[in-house]
Specification:
Blueprint: E1 14-17, E2 33-37, E3 42-46, E4 52-58, E5 64-68, E6 72-75, E7 81-91, E8 94-105, E9 117-122, H1 141-153, E10 158-159, E11 166-176, E12 184-186, E13 198-203, E14 216-219, E15 230-238, E16 253-263, E17 268-274, E18 292-299, E19 304-306, E20 312-314, E21 334-335, E22 340-341, E23 352-360, E24 375-376, E25 379-381
Parallel strand pairs: 2-8
Antiparallel strand pairs: 1-3, 3-6, 4-5, 4-7, 7-8, 9-11, 10-24, 11-23, 12-21, 12-25, 13-14, 13-23, 14-22, 15-16, 15-18, 16-17, 19-20
């Protein structure tokens, strides 16, 4: 075992990023002690050379768990207490071992199991976009984000519009990935025959900056590996001209060529405008001056059937999607972080997550009831 004096030539650079996003501290080797609130991340990175790295943490009851085999280590604990951190660096057949103490302390203010903030609200065009939340003259994108956050914190619903429209929400703590159980619940307004399914993705705030700028991982639901499901599907919507003459259609459609769209596969079509419940609001987000809006996500197979009376019935998928089952079905509206896959479809192991994204996964018109648009009514940590 080498001593600290022996390893000075390795120039160990340690960055310890606390849950309060303080300026990172540096030292040669590990600090003797680290303090972190429970369910907040301790982010450690070394700049040492080596052939292999192993970070292990041992709890007070003697249970040891490997945290990482890279130069970076993330530690999160649900329980307060004292933990021993061991870093083993192997270089040219020799081992360098350092230990440190992590003291996990209770949070200052008790955490809430429900989401605490909306980081982004970026809906696609849809019949409820300027209603849920309500747009008022002069509202900016930031004001709409704030309204969306308030709607959800008050238990109200927001709409994500047609394919690709999305929302990103966060919590006042990290949601741990518990073994062999589901980790969070998503609310919606789904009911039998009305499953307007949304793709669910998660992200871990690895750089601990409170911004959803780290890698996203889709939760691979029941349709993920089916040939009809299209990954990396991209749609661009085009703002309709003012004073456009409507082209009426059937089943309550007042303009079957209302908002044009094109995709990255050479396809194109329209979002139809309907008179459902005398709903005549603008479909285009009125806080946006953009003439085009582009979204990329996973496209699910169309899920509607048409009954003999002309009514549309939107069938549910087996599992893994938002706005798929009625809220009373807690089990099928709950999600496991272990379903996460990377952009190549490979399973990933996440210690936990900080952000959840829900995006409408369907591109379809359904007569009088309009385009399929995922609705969202908040998120809840099931492990707190």
């Amino acid at each position: 075992m080498k001593t600290l004096k022996n390893i000075l030539p390795y120039i160990l650079l340690l960055l310890a990023v606390s849950c309060s996003n303080e300026i990172p501290t540096t030292s040669i080797g590990l600090d003797d002690d680290y303090y972190v609130a429970r369910l907040q991340k301790l982010n450690l990175t070394i700049g040492a050379a080596g052939d292999s790295f192993k970070w292990e943490v041992t709890s007070e009851n003697g249970e040891t768990k490997t945290l990482s085999n890279t130069q970076q280590c993330l530690f999160v604990s649900k329980e307060s207490g004292v933990y021993t951190l061991t870093l083993t660096i192997t270089d040219n057949g020799e081992e360098i071992i350092e230990t440190s103490t992590i003291r996990v302390i209770p949070e200052d203010i008790e955490y809430k199991p429900t989401m605490s903030k909306v980081l982004e609200f970026n809906p696609a065009p849809g019949q409820f976009i300027n209603d849920l939340p309500e747009y008022e003259e002069g509202d900016t994108k930031e004001i709409i984000r704030q309204k969306t956050e308030q709607y959800l914190l008050n238990g109200s619903m927001v709409s994500l519009g047609s394919f690709g429209g999305y929302i990103i929400v966060g919590f006042d703590h990290t949601i741990l990935n518990e073994t062999d159980k589901k980790d969070f619940f998503l609310g919606s307004n789904a009911f039998t025959g009305s499953s307007e399914c949304g793709i669910v993705s998660v992200s871990l705030d690895r750089n601990n900056n409170g911004i959803a700028d780290d890698e996203w991982y889709e939760l691979a639901g029941s349709e993920y590996n089916k040939p009809e499901t299209i990954k990396n599907y991209q749609v661009t919507y085009y703002r309709p001209e003012e004073g456009k003459t409507p082209l009426p259609g059937k089943n309550g459609v007042v303009d079957k060529e209302y908002i044009k769209w094109s995709d990255n596969l050479g396809g194109e079509g329209f979002i139809e405008q309907n008179n459902f419940s005398n709903h005549t609001l603008e479909y285009w987000p009125q806080w946006s001056n953009a003439k085009e809006l582009t979204f990329t996500s996973t496209l699910l197979p169309q899920n509607y059937t048409i009954k003999s009376n002309g009514q549309y019935f939107l069938n549910k998928y087996d599992w893994g999607y938002a706005d798929n089952y009625p809220n009373k079905d807690r089990e099928n509206n709950s999600f496991d972080i272990s379903w996460a896959v990377n952009s190549n479809g490979e399973k990933v192991e996440l210690i936990g997550i900080d952000f959840i994204k829900v995006a409408t996964g369907l591109l379809q018109n359904c007569g009088q009831i309009g385009e399929s648009s995922t609705e969202f009514i908040g998120a809840e940590d099931l492990n707190l």
